[in-house]
Amino acid sequence: MLYRKNVSPLERAARLLGGALIVACALTQVGFTPLGLVLAASGVVTALTGLFGFCPACAMAGRRPLEEPR
Questions:
Q1: 32 C-beta neighbours (distance < 10 Å), count
Q2: Does 43 have pLDDT greater than 70?
Q3: 16: alpha, beta or left, given left = phi > 0 and alpha = psi -120 to 50?
Q4: Spatial contact of 2 and 56, defined as CB atoms under 8 Å apart
Q5: What is the spatial distance between Cα 54 and Cα 19, in angstroms, rounded to a whole number?
Q6: CB atoms inside a 10 Å sphere around CB 61
Q7: What is the pTM of this model?
Q8: Distance between CA 51 and CA 66 in Å, rounded?
Q9: Which of 48, 49, 51 is nearest to 59 (CA)?
Q10: C-alpha distances in angstroms, 12 versus 7, 29, 65?
């Protein structure tokens, strides 16, 4: 793996769900305007951090990687 996961399994699930909801709300409530597309893109990034289990912003802030299960 090229990275070490720094997002817990519970937080990963929350990020996936939250990202999907951000995309859905942005596109249905704001529409396909520039603001709606920016909000939808932020939802996609949030969902991807949940999918991969790695958040670059958390890594820059100093969050330690999770211990790998043995």
A1: 10
A2: yes
A3: alpha
A4: no
A5: 14
A6: 9
A7: 0.83
A8: 15
A9: 49
A10: 6, 25, 14
